[in-house]
Amino acid sequence: MKKEKIAFFRSYPFEVGQKINIEDGPRKGDWEVADLNERKVKLRCPVSHREFEWDRICYFSEERLAERWPMDD
Q1: Are 13 and 56 in contact (CB under 8 A)?
Q2: pLDDT for 11-61, tens place per residue?
Q3: Pairing outcome for strands 40-44 and 29-36
Q4: 3-state secondary structure the chain
Q5: Is 30 exposed, middle or buried (0-12, 13-18, 19+ CB in 10 A)?
Q6: Which end of the chain is more exposed for a tag (fewer CB within 10 A), N or C?
């Protein structure tokens, strides 16, 4: 039987107040977790303070310490 290469993903356990950076895609940039429930996450832009609610589709990539936040592009 042929073995297949499979990628496994796990939803990230966000916490309210958490500072995150999405590295690519249409939501790219710095965000703060404003609110969440089982299905949705509400993110706040640290510059404009606008909030957006999206389905929880972000996945953990890596965690790093940063000297500055929000980060410069």
Answers
A1: no
A2: 888 999 999 998 888 889 999 999 999 999 999 999 999 999 999 876 666
A3: antiparallel
A4: CCCCCCCCCCECCCCCCCEEEECCCCCCEEEEEEEECCCEEEEECCCCCCEEEEECCCECCCCCCCCCCCCCC
A5: buried
A6: N
